[in-house]
């Protein structure tokens, strides 16, 4: 099976993303600003495929209700989970624990560019793409391992989603219900622009609220033929 960076749909998608972002950013990359800095700056929260033709990117109303909400969260010395919500006040439509440590993801984010790709080898035509269960996970082109989409949220995951119900974007440390040896419970939450290439591929691009260049986070989901 080809690696994630060799998949035709993703190669086309990544190429488009790079060119589009470079145009928007005037050829330069934002090094260390934006939402990734919030891991250190925000205080603790105490209140509750083939992309032949890509959809046009909106220039106004980037934080509209149609944007998808994505949360990356996990204990610092534990694994990181990814939750996709169509409505930040509703349960996730896609929830998976990634085969990588939260601390490792934080290090990748410090570089200012993170591309997470999930590939499903299952060809169940009756299912939507996000309904597939088994996924190969890649981060910045390197394979991290395999994960299985959760059918139901755990108590810890429901706790995180409940705390973040009123949060549209941000990053920091969440209060824990109990002490754990895995360290603080960290999160990053943002709005994402969703681009559907076909029934077998889609991409989500983090929306920078101030519209300027800065660190990039993209998530790709592909069903491999």
From TrEMBL:
Pfam families: DUF617. One of its GO terms (biological process) is hydrotropism. NCBIfam families: A_thal_3588. This is Protein MIZU-KUSSEI 1.
């Amino acid at each position: 099976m080809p690696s994630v960076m060799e998949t035709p749909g993703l190669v086309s998608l990544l190429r488009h993303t790079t060119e589009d972002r470079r145009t928007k950013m005037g050829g330069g990359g934002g090094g260390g600003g934006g939402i990734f800095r919030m891991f250190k700056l925000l205080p603790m929260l105490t209140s509750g495929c083939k992309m032949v033709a890509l959809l046009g990117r909106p220039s106004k109303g980037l934080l509209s209700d149609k944007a998808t909400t994505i949360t990356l969260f996990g204990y610092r010395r534990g694994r990181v989970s990814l939750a996709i919500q169509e409505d930040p006040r509703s349960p996730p439509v896609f929830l998976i624990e990634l085969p990588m440590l939260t601390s490792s993801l934080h290090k990748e984010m410090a570089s200012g560019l993170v591309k997470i790709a999930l590939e499903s080898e299952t060809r169940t035509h009756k299912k939507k793409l996000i309904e597939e269960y088994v996924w190969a996970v890649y981060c910045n082109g390197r394979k991290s391992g395999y994960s299985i989409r959760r059918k139901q949220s755990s108590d810890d995951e429901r706790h995180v989603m409940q705390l973040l119900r009123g949060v549209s974007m941000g990053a920091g440390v969440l209060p824990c219900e109990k002490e754990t040896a895995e360290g603080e419970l960290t999160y990053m939450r943002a709005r994402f622009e969703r681009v559907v290439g076909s029934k077998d591929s889609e991409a989500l691009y983090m929306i920078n609220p101030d519209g300027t260049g800065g660190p990039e986070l993209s998530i790709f989901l592909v069903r491999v033929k």
